[in-house]
Amino acid sequence: MCGIVGYIGWRDAAPLIIEGLKRLEYRGYDSFGVATENGDIRVVKRNGRISDNHLDLSALSGTIGIGHTRWATHGAPNEQNAHPHTDCSGSIAVVHNGIIENYAVLRRKLTEKGHLFRSETDTEVIAHLIEEYYTGDLLAAVTETVRHLEGSYAILALARDDPRIIAARKSSPLVLGIGDGEMLCASDITPLLDHTERAVYLEDGDIAALTPARIDVYHDGMPVERQVDHITWSVDDAKKGGFPHYMLKEIYEQPQAFYNTIKGLEGDSHLAMVRVAPELTVAACGTSYHAALIFRYLAEDYGKKRVNVELASEFKYYAPPIRELVIAVSQSGETADTLAAIDQAKAHNCPALAITNILGSSITRKADWTLFMCAGPEISVAATKSFTAQLAVFMVMVNTMCDREFDDVLAHAHCSIERVLSCTLGKAVALISEAQEMFYVGRGVFYPVALEGALKMKEISYIHAEGYAAGELKHGPFALLSPETPVVAICMPGRTYGVMLSNVKEMKARGAPIIGIGVEGDTEVEQVVDVFIPVPADHQMVQALTVSVVLQLLAYHTACALNRDIDKPRNLAKSVTVE
Predict the structure, then answer these.
(1) Per-residue pLDDT tens for 442-476?
(2) Which residues are catalytic?
């Protein structure tokens, strides 16, 4: 979940690396550091966020450097545990994203050989292993080192008087950028956008040697060629564009993200396999899991297709019935649990279809086929437009199952999303912002919408919010209802409307303040609830989108009222690349 950046070329490395790390701060913001090589290895690192610190770069001269922004796993978030880490002599520096599972064994062996450790991290063993095998050739030392590592890693390494950066990856993302007389490397493409439109995505087991003029990639000790991809995202895509937070900007980008994804899938031959498969299994985590649950309701209702939805984080620890096609969903394409689910699918001889936002990500290489979202870069930790883009992919799948019955519905959905962006939420925010806990309830397809709304609220406001199928409240959670426990109730037209309205009245009778979401003009719901939020009357698919966007905005404005750090919520990172 950490972010790493490397630069080698003709410019001062440190300022460029610092700017790159700021682009990656959504991957981790516990501490940060930079190392440069200029006849010697110099390291500067600090506790806290790079965006909140003014780093004195005067000691970091040189045109070769590596940097890191940390999400703590092994060891407390402090300056001692911040990367880069060095060997005993300070002549080798390393940054690392991932987890070295056998670090305790390696550390004990290295300590017995006289190596002195200064941190609590798993990463430091990499620096000492490289030192153990270094005889003047950094590439050879890193090649030997990774043979002893178990777990996941994206590694950048420097050595004194070696005019190269050595990069290695296994189960953690690493992309190389090809500039003019300069090369870059990073955890994702956002730090590269200012400098190049050419990228090389390393594959698992690759080791690369970077100089200002060339990239040499090796796999199993043999030189290999890796494809150079064109970066289609722009610098402006990764900036706030006048919005106070990335999250709000990305919420407002959802109409375009939905439209672009729908258009991008037109004529995609991979959709046919979803139609012919008699049964589907979807593996996903977090927000992606909620999108998959919505897909299950829509596919089973409209497409009459059996869909199993599994938490990717649990997928390999038990044996669900895996048959036919497995669909793995990950915005980043690097989610460790989702990648492991693909391995599990292949162990059962099932083909895997990936849904992702990132060209060249790990999931695109593991899966047999890929469907791409067209959401553009998502910087805020709390997922918004990637959720909507995932729903766009899933809704196209449902439309394919139904002989394109919903072409018109999907064609205008982005307009409905745009309409709700201006909804008025002041009264609802005032009601919620004093609460310590709250419920979100819905039925049918709006049950997973409620789950996602609750997740957004707890992620960025830190209010304890739980999502429930409305009928389940009477099986225990009713005991928690009180005048201090607001409920967000999604009460939309359809076959669940009557019973949902009854549930709302029951909750109201227990004294709970109710925020009701219903269609414009629904006076029956409006008269029962304390605060009514209307959305346009539309097809159920579109209402799943519009209600989700309203709930994103509700979480956002509540977090603003509570003065939370919206783009960087505490303890969370954007891309979960470790299990």
Answers:
(1) 999 999 999 999 999 999 999 999 999 887 777 77
(2) 2, 574
